[in-house]
Amino acid sequence: MSAITLTSSDGVDISVERTTAERSVLIKNMLEDLGDSGEAIPIPNVNEAVLKKVIECDDDDNRRKTTDIDEWDQKFMQVDQEMLFEIILAANYLDIKALLDVGCKTVANMIKGKSPEEIRKTFNIQNDFTPEEEDQIRRENEWAEDR
């Protein structure tokens, strides 16, 4: 197996097996364009900590065919909220569908069954709606409420 070098947004070079890096459609396409030049591949939208976490991700797509998150993925996604959202952004940028799915499922589980107020508290979101706007939104979306 051959290793390639990825350069994170903060300028850190990270050596990774080519097959691991090619889980990213973006990196796979870049490697095809560059050929075997041996040049480091710049990853300008992902910092070192997030890139290392993304590389660490297990690539067992068979586990990801369900809406449930298996034990390995749950442990992998036990990170602070900032890192979780950085992983989701990196997976989207790098075009790693399986990792993006796991990240989004993790967020979905965090908000499942919660009220809008609880969700705002969980993600530290400021409520900028007036009471009238909130009432209108609730009326327009009554169909989505659990009864």
From TrEMBL:
Domain of life per record: Eukaryota
Pfam families: Skp1, Skp1_POZ
Quaternary structure note: Component of the SCF (SKP1-CUL1-F-box protein) E3 ubiquitin ligase complexes.
SMART domains: Skp1
Function recorded in the entry: Essential component of the SCF (SKP1-CUL1-F-box protein) E3 ubiquitin ligase complexes, which mediate the ubiquitination and subsequent proteasomal degradation of target proteins. Controls sulfur metabolite repression, probably by mediating the inactivation or degradation of the metR transcription factor.
PANTHER family: SKP1 (PTHR11165)
GO biological process: ubiquitin-dependent protein catabolic process
KW GTP-binding (keyword) present: no
Xref: InterPro entries: SKP1, SKP1-like, SKP1-like_dim_sf, SKP1/BTB/POZ_sf, Skp1_comp_dimer, Skp1_comp_POZ
Pathway: Protein modification; protein ubiquitination
Protein name: E3 ubiquitin ligase complex SCF subunit
Keywords recorded for this protein, A-Z: Ubl conjugation pathway
Protein family membership: Belongs to the SKP1 family.
